[in-house]
Design goal:
mainly alpha; two-stranded antiparallel ribbon; 4 helices; 2 strands; elongated
Length: 106
């Protein structure tokens, strides 16, 4: 094997290791997102009653959870998935969070 080929094979090995680490980090992030309080139902967390009211709106605890997730650096899509709300609803909560953060900093 030529030196050039060895170099390429070595680079590929490094890239594969980095990809594996990135996948592990993504899995840990998903596990963190799924760690919500609530009753277990069919292997997933039930957010209704704790974080969402019967009509699907976030309770004060749900709004606080959204803010906590944003504080932790989570995206609007993450919050929408975790709290089982639409992306536009998560976007509205993100705007509320930004306004609250601006008020706290003022």
């Amino acid at each position: 094997m030529t030196t050039y080929r060895k170099s390429i094979v070595s680079e590929i090995g490094v890239l594969l290791e980095e990809a594996g680490e990135a996948l592990k980090a993504a899995q840990r992030r998903l596990n963190d997102l799924d760690a919500l309080p609530g009753a277990e139902r069919a292997g997933r967390k039930d957010v209704t009653g704790i974080l969402k009211s019967g009509d699907g709106k976030l309770t004060p605890a749900g709004v606080q959870r959204a803010f906590d997730l944003f504080d932790a650096g989570r995206t609007r899509a993450d919050v929408a998935r975790v709290l089982e709300i639409s992306y536009p609803a998560a976007n509205n909560r993100w705007k509320d969070w930004q306004n609250a953060r601006a008020t706290r900093q003022a």
